[in-house]
Amino acid sequence: TGGRLQVVLYVEEADYNPFLVTSTGAKIIVHDQHEYPFIEDIGTEIETATATSIGMHFTRSHKLSKPYSDCTETGTDIPVANLYNKSYSLQICLHSCFQRAMVDTCGCAQYAQPLPPGAEYCNYKKYPNWMYCYYKLHEKFVKEQLGCQQICKEACSFNEWTLTTSLAQWPSSVSEDWMLRVLSWDKGQKINKMLNKTDLANLVVFYKDLNERFISENPANNIVILLSNFGGQLGLWMSCSVVCVIEIIEVFFIDSFFIVTRRRWQKAKRWWNDRKAAPTQEPPQGNAPAREGHDNLACTDEDLPTFNTALGLPVPHENHMLRTPPPNYNTLQLDAAFTDPLPDTLEGR
Length: 349
Hints:
The structure is a single chain. By secondary structure, this protein is an alpha/beta fold. The chain has nine helices and nine strands. It has helices spanning 39-42, 90-106, 130-142, 148-151, 176-183, 223-237, 242-277, 307-311, 343-346; strands spanning 4-10, 26-28, 44-46, 50-62, 157-169, 185-186, 189-190, 200-207, 213-216. The radius of gyration is 54 Å and the shape is elongated.
């Protein structure tokens, strides 16, 4: 009532095997209806002759899968068959992997776990050594030698119940006799023996609060955030914008590509034209003298030709190409300004 569950557990301490059990109490677990309760792994123990109050707080978590973490969404990518027909969890994968290894190694399945298809549970009549095989295999499993811990992965989505436990003495010394007498009646009929308080445990489970907490992972950086941060840093430190970056890419990549392509095209075109013109050219004669420039052998240096060097020019051959004629040296003669020669010039004659 009031959003809580209250039960009184009868543990029957007298039926315990002293060689197998050395403690008295009970173990409980709070789980979702789609989850399998592995009470041996994550159960919460409660005491006898004690009132245990457990407050629950529900948390739903979701982690990112690859490439952010090595978790699985539904478990379909894990090469281990789910024998429990419940939602995937790491404990289900480990127990299923061990049960499959038990069938492959020992020939039978362990009775505390679901039965794989085509297998049968172990018994001493048909499998007399199955217990020895089971302990040897369980030792390898604990030492992570079966490979189950490497194959199985955590689930990306999981529910978690956070429990807060408080204890109190129960029943109190004042109400002990009355409480035990009331509990000794079962639906109006008295039980054969009087109950002892060490056989009973009072349990109260309630919601600590009605708020549901949801924890989700989001990527700190993606393509949009990366480009946004990159553009912001360029604008802050280099006063660059998207247009500036595009222009830089155009100059250094696109224009360079077109320049290289154009040069190769021109080179290929020039090679093709030379190849087409090569058969039409006449081969040069073997006895033809080599021609240089205007065939002016005197003009082999950087000095200008003089009158003497011009007179020493060789006579051109008949088949020689036309060349620039020498200048008319008569034009170099200067006419005297006076018709009569001067007396000092006549003395030298």
